[in-house]
Amino acid sequence: MRTHAIFCTLFSLTIALTASCASRPSQQKPVGKFETTIKAGDIRLFSYSQPLFREKARPITARNRQEDGTGKPREDSESQLKRTLHDLELDPRLQEYCPAGHIVIDQYAVLNDVVIRGECKYGKEQAIK
Predict the structure, then answer these.
(1) Is the pTM of this model over 0.85?
(2) How far apart are CA 25 and CA 38, in angstroms?
(3) What is the DSSP string of 10-30?
């Protein structure tokens, strides 16, 4: 009887610990490459890039084509730019580097990368300098 009570207690404790660990949000590692540059006059620039997703080449068949019959990739460059911009907005490195916000200067998909270039906005204390 006593062994059964100890076993039930340990089992309940294990379940409780597992549930509490599973409910915590995991720390997500930033996806893209974040590079910074500081120019004269404390002008803070950044560049954020991610690999461009391209579908593997495959034979053209009715099954491989989309419902509209065009056979275009599932995610085009424009939607990948939007996804990369969203990832950049959530990146803690950007929030740390540009605490007052940022302005996107340029965004493009070229060769094997999606690239977003930008400049930090400046707070009142930086504008006085």
Answers:
(1) no
(2) 34
(3) HHHHHHHHHHHHHHSPP-PPP
Spatial separation of the C-alpha atoms in residues 129 and 124, rounded to whole Å? 9
Rounded to 5°, angle at Cα 45 from 39 and 51: 140
The domain spans of the chain are 31-53+61-128
Angle at 80 (CA atoms; ends 98, 65), nearest 5 degrees = 170
Neighbours of 114 (CB within 10 A): 23
Residue (of 78, 100, 76, 83) closest to 48 by Cα position: 83
Q: What does the pLDDT look like over 62-91, one tens digit per residue? A: 665 554 455 555 567 788 889 999 999 999
pLDDT (0 to 100) of residue 24: 47
108 strand-pairing partners: 115
Cα separation, 19 vs 50, whole angstroms: 34
Going by their DSSP bridges, the two strands 113-120 and 102-110 should be labelled as antiparallel
For 10-32, how does the pLDDT look when each residue is reduced to its tens digit (9 = 90+)?
566 566 555 555 444 455 666 78
Nearest Cα neighbor of 47 from 95, 114, 112, 124 is: 114
